[in-house]
Amino acid sequence: MTSVLQAQGLGKRYGRRWALRECTIDIPAGHVVGLVGPNGAGKTTLLKLASGQLEPTAGDITVLGGRPGGTPAQLARVGFVAQDTPVYARLTVAEHLRLGARLNPRWDDGVARERIAQLGLDPTQRAGRLSGGQRAQLALTLGLAKRPELLILDEPVASLDPLARREFLQGLMEAVVEHEFSVVLSSHLVSDLERICDYLIVLVDSRVLVAGDVDRLLATHYRLTGPRRDPDRLPTDQHIVSARHTDRQSTYVIRTDAPIHDPAWTVSRLNLEDLVLAHMDKRPAGSRPAPLEVQR
Predict the structure, then answer these.
(1) Taking 70 as the threshold, does the pLDDT of residue 148 lie above it?
(2) Per the CB 3.0–4.6 Å rule, which of 49, 91, 205, 285 could disulfide with 95?
(3) Where in this chain does the record put each ABC transporter domain (predicted)?
(4) Residue 142 shares a structural domain with residue 253
(5) β-sheet bridge partners, residue 79
(6) How many domains in the chain?
(7) For residue 274, is it left (φ>0), alpha (ψ between -120 and 50) or beta?
(8) Is 69 inside a domain boundary?
(9) How many CB atoms lie within 10 A of CB 107?
(10) Which of 176, 115, 121 is nearest to 141 (CA)?
């Protein structure tokens, strides 16, 4: 499978603090990839390294087979939309499009103007007077009109209301279908990723805990609930992702390709949010929860 982004032992340090360290990752091309993880996992730093905004302190990274930001041609192949959807408050919508055309050799003016018309944005309106959703759509338009092979979005809808989020993501997916480019999207809103992503990466402390096609991951993860059982009594082909125990009951999230035949377990499927939270749970498999914790 062709990779759109590869990193090996990648690290970025600010003074004595490592924002990203020993990160090894392989993101396939041709997917809408959801990148999730807790605050401080290194997601934003990774995406800025991938877009050429930062230089690594350690390790290696390649994007679309080349060094991020290494040449103007390489920069033109990658689009980036940040969390704060950066636009220039004093510039009008039309001036943003003219600036985009001057800065990007692959600029598609037809795409840009068509999107602005579909969104109902006034080309003479200054960006500072647009709503948050409109600014986000303008930033997305600038990213799409670059005609990138890879579009990187770092929490682009975090501050938007539900309707604006839906419209943003719908516009993104329509563009993906029409122009067939790869997307890497980081978000804390797993419900949004569930709607649009077909590939998932969970990053915790710079380590990839799980990566794969969403459908495949959901098909191989299960929740087991039953009489209390120590983890060493589970079959070896059942990889324990997380575990919670009371005095009488155990609840495991496991990953396995094998069928589960033990009648003592109640077996249920996970949704994507369940799966992500299970992999982000750092407690050891045999740990016990706080006394008042609600069991799931």
Answers:
(1) yes
(2) 91
(3) 5-230
(4) no
(5) 151
(6) 2
(7) alpha
(8) yes
(9) 19
(10) 115
| pTM as predicted | 0.88
What residue type is 22 in one-letter code? Answer: E
Q: How far apart are CA 171 and CA 247, in angstroms?
A: 50
Range of the domain at 264: 220-280
What pLDDT, on a 0 to 100 scale, did the predictor assign at position 283? 52
- pLDDT for 1 equals 57
The predicted-structure confidence for 64-92, as pLDDT tens digits, reads as follows: 999 998 898 999 999 999 887 779 999 99
45 φ, ψ (degrees, to nearest 5): -60, -45
Note whether 134 and 14 are same-domain residues. yes
DSSP per-residue codes, 184-236: EEE-S-HHHHHHH-SEEEEEETTEEEEEEEHHHHHHHEEEEEEE---GGGS-T
Burial class (CB in 10 A: 0-12, 13-18, 19+), 47: buried
d(CA 263, CA 171): 46
Q: Is residue 180 part of a domain?
A: yes
Exposure string (b/e) for 194-207, b if CB count within 10 Å is 16 or more? Answer: bebbebbbbbbebe
Structure tokens at 67: 């060094």
Sign of the dihedral defined by the CA atoms of residues 105, 106, 110, 115, in that order: negative
Domain annotation covers residue 111 = yes
